[in-house]
Design a protein that fits this description.
By secondary structure, this protein is mainly beta. Helix content is 10%, strand content 39%. The chain has a single domain (8-100), classed as Nuclear Transport Factor 2, Chain: A, CATH 3.10.450.50. The chain has one helix and four strands.
């Protein structure tokens, strides 16, 4: 589950109010070119893998009533994957920071 520590008035996306489908619809609409995900650092190996990641894309569609700006948006976070003997994994994420690269309103 995605967690964040932003003040309530800046939490435009609230995972507890979204379904899997509504979440994907919202982000596909807002980020029509996709929302890339990359691993920046890996801190530990299996069976518990801790890593730092970046999620980014271009805000070129509407998001919850906000008009597109064309800016690149990104967030950085920490993730933990727990791998079991059957090579299944259970993800856990913690949002560290939200920012836009250009000046302007922060959306996520």
């Amino acid at each position: 589950m995605l967690k964040n520590s932003l003040p309530e008035e800046f939490q435009y996306y609230k995972p507890e109010e979204e379904s899997f489908e509504s979440s994907h619809d919202a982000f596909r609409s807002a980020l029509p070119r996709g929302f890339a995900w990359e691993i920046l650092s890996v801190y530990s190996g299996p069976p518990v893998i801790a890593f730092k990641f970046r999620h980014w894309g271009y805000f070129e569609g509407t998001f919850k009533g906000h008009a597109p700006t064309g800016e690149m948006v990104q967030f950085l976070g920490l993730g933990v994957l727990k791998v079991c003997r059957k090579h299944e994994w259970v993800p856990s994420y913690n949002l560290l920071m939200v920012k836009t690269l250009a000046s302007g309103f922060t959306y996520f």
